[in-house]
Amino acid sequence: MRLFLDKLYEAALWAAALCLATIALLVGIQLGGRLLDGALMLLHLPPTEFQILSLAEISGYMLAAASFMALAPTLKGGAHIRVTMALNGLPPALRRAAELLAFGIACVASAYMTWQFANFAYVSYKFNEVSAGVIRVQLAYPQAFVALGTLILTIALIDELVTIVMSDRPSFRDAEEAFTVGKEG
Amino acid sequence: MSVIELSLLLLVFLFVILASGVWIALALTIVGYVAIVATLSTPPGQVLSTSIWAASDSWDLTALPMFIWMGEILYRTKLPDDMFSGLAPWMQKLPGRLLHVNVVGCAIFAAVSGSSAATCATIGRISLPELLKRGYDEKMAIGTLAGAGTLGLLIPPSIILIIYATVTEQSIARLFIAGVLPGIMLAGLFMGFIVVWALLNKDRMPEPEPPMPWRERLAASRRLIPVMLLILGVIGSIYGGLASATEAAVVGVFLSFAFSWWSGTLTVESFREALLAATKTSCMIAFILAGAAYLTAAMGFTGIPMALAEWITAFQLQPWALLTVLTIFYALLGCFLDGISMVVLTTSIIIPLVEKSGFDLIWFGIYIVLVVEMAQITPPVGFNLYVLQGMTGRNIFTIGAYTLPLFLLMVAAVVLVAMFPGIALWLPSTMLDR
To answer: What ipTM did this prediction achieve?
Structure first.
């Protein structure tokens, strides 16, 4: 079970990273085409007019998918921000209770969001909603990834809740405490 | 229940739920949900999915992970190590000598990284030990580093400006260009302070080092030059209208790879680490933006922002009085919240008020970044102070005291930008529109 969950989070992280790398690659190819055209124009040659259709929309969808697929691994990496000032001031026993409460609330909220996103994607699928651009992308696909990412986050939160019950502290506490660099913008 | 009672209750609820250690993004979502349910204004679930989807699926926002990725790649090159040795020989003539490396180094690194704590940590890792070894005043070394690190937020690319642009639907390109002159001005103020301090405290400065010939200076900063060109290329292409912010960011990613390959630091390992770190950081920010989008939509249904705007404008405050109140409010908020949360939380409430009072939203973006920068160096919650606490082992309030003169300089910068809005608005007004 432990191994399966860790693999699940890792796979989600790589899926997200792949989306971002693909965006960079596509935009890079498009820019390369534009530079090539500029050079051809300077040489009075006909431009290639190469264009990746609906690039902006597709990038947007991939960004949304990436942002949500990475939710659970980001939680596990201790990189989601929260205010720990009050928690740090509590004695250990109370802190454990407070952590349980915080994770409990987060679980409920995340489960609710999963349900809403799944419903949203299902409605898009049922009414066959497509994007407005030249390439008609089925909106249900990126929306399904948003729902899936939130579902994995819910699983990770339950996983953490169990960890705290068994061992008193979230698995990522050390990472969270060490992680002060670059998380605030 | 009146709007005022409701706002107060929601505010208290927000602070309780934030303090209880729930993740900020989820806390914003929960408060949004409660606000909609309390006013029975609309089905809360439908607004949740549509508002979050609209905020997450965005071409403009794609600039965010790309700029973060670019910073992560360059962070894993030899650039941070070269910064001190490359800049130090050029600073020997100025009064205050190598203390200026803190400011200039931070300003340059700010132009590749959008984060102030990362800027502070990267420059400080090398420059702090070097400065202390050479006998520079510890107070000044630590204080200027904490202050100059905040330049990371103002000098483009800036994560805070991308976030502000997204939540207020302003142009990222214009905000970036608007940040250039105030950033240079602030760096100038910091350097001026170092010069004055060094002239007044000659006895606390170490002996000067022998000057270095030009050829050696150039050799020492050989690796800084391509990075400077990279920065000029990225900012210049945005300014010249050649590329949108996202495209410029992607160019930055590719050029950073090229630089990393040229300096021999591009490995499978560094590629993997940079990509995964960028994915996590941008996910963290995108999640907060998603929560904030829902809260903003919910707030719109409750009517609180409009009521607040009308309530405050009824006082007929002068613009400067309103700005003073806002600055104090942000400074207090900044003692407890991080920059991103401050921006997304307040913009959902305060922007209608700001528009109604006749402020330019690009100008207000620069103002808000300056104020958030101040928050980065106010104890007990200030990320730059955390970083330096980790590095020096000093108490956070001690470091805060070292940084106080720079905090006051930032207040001066806010006053200057308020008195002369052209400092922020002139450069974007000369931009070529796309």
So the answer is: 0.92
